[in-house]
Automatic annotation (TrEMBL):
<keyword id="KW-0472">Membrane</keyword>
<feature type="transmembrane region" description="Helical">
    <location>
        <begin position="247"/>
        <end position="266"/>
    </location>
</feature>
<dbReference type="GO" id="GO:0016020">
    <property type="term" value="C:membrane"/>
</dbReference>
<feature type="transmembrane region" description="Helical">
    <location>
        <begin position="41"/>
        <end position="58"/>
    </location>
</feature>
<feature type="transmembrane region" description="Helical">
    <location>
        <begin position="188"/>
        <end position="208"/>
    </location>
</feature>
<feature type="domain" description="EamA">
    <location>
        <begin position="14"/>
        <end position="141"/>
    </location>
</feature>
<dbReference type="InterPro" id="IPR050638">
    <property type="entry name" value="AA-Vitamin_Transporters"/>
</dbReference>
<feature type="transmembrane region" description="Helical">
    <location>
        <begin position="79"/>
        <end position="100"/>
    </location>
</feature>
<feature type="domain" description="EamA">
    <location>
        <begin position="157"/>
        <end position="289"/>
    </location>
</feature>
<keyword id="KW-1133">Transmembrane helix</keyword>
<feature type="transmembrane region" description="Helical">
    <location>
        <begin position="157"/>
        <end position="176"/>
    </location>
</feature>
<protein>
    <submittedName>
        <fullName>DME family drug/metabolite transporter</fullName>
    </submittedName>
</protein>
<feature type="transmembrane region" description="Helical">
    <location>
        <begin position="214"/>
        <end position="235"/>
    </location>
</feature>
<comment type="similarity">
    <text>Belongs to the EamA transporter family.</text>
</comment>
<keyword id="KW-0812">Transmembrane</keyword>
<feature type="transmembrane region" description="Helical">
    <location>
        <begin position="272"/>
        <end position="289"/>
    </location>
</feature>
<feature type="transmembrane region" description="Helical">
    <location>
        <begin position="133"/>
        <end position="151"/>
    </location>
</feature>
Amino acid sequence: MNARTSAALAWGGVLLAGALWGGGALVAQFLIDGGIAPQSLSLARFALGLPLLWWLHWRAPAMPGAGWADLSSRERSQMLATGAAMALNVSCWFAGIVHLGAALPTVISICCAPVIVTLVSVLRGYERLGRRLIAGLLLLVMPAGGWGPLAPGHAAGVAWSLGSAFCYAMVVLGNARMPARVPAVTASAWGMTAAALCMLAVALPSGITWPSGGAQWLGVGYTGVVTTSVAYLAFAWGARRLSPTAAVVGTLIEPLVAALLAAALFSQALTPRQWAGALLLAGAMLLLVRRSKPAQSD
């Protein structure tokens, strides 16, 4: 497989994950509005996603040096810490949805994460702060008309969403720097196991709320299998083949999908400024796609 094909497939995996997560935001809002607590939904999401990942792991050909016993303590800690960050990311995101609905927490979480990833990557020497990267970040974070005053009660939702952005950035960096000899499905299975255990510890003290009715069970199953197992596996595979900043920017399709579906299904109409923001996000993704091509240089 040549470098161009590999990069195209990597972008495909990241974009697929972002699209699935964007649709999952609307399913999460439906379930939370139906009475399921955010921490219970997070637990269900990871617990239901685990069987598929472990089944794929056990069916995959064994890779030399990729077993748990073969990993160093640092590599094991990296996989488990990435899983814990995954749990915190989803929990904060769901908490933001409680206050703000599906679209805005998704936009805040995903659009602020590239700033965090870029700063960490530059400080650690993983990436250079080139001109295209600066332009892309300016397109992402520059408000079209200013933020304006927040409505009462929105501050908590914004705070949870920013917490989700920080944790999401840690997930991106953890996946991008995962040991190359460990298959993506193996790293995802171990990471999601850690995420499920973290959420079990959080959800048990306050009590677990269960779905009621076929629609809620179907929604919970969708979030577990499609937006967790399938989406995180696609993202983990693609993130290894892209730079951390490119990987996190690729998932900017998530807020676009969430905003469009929110407008279509929940009558959360997009304002002209939001449409302008969507175009800015699309432009930033195109910049990063060009930057990731092997023939390009900063």
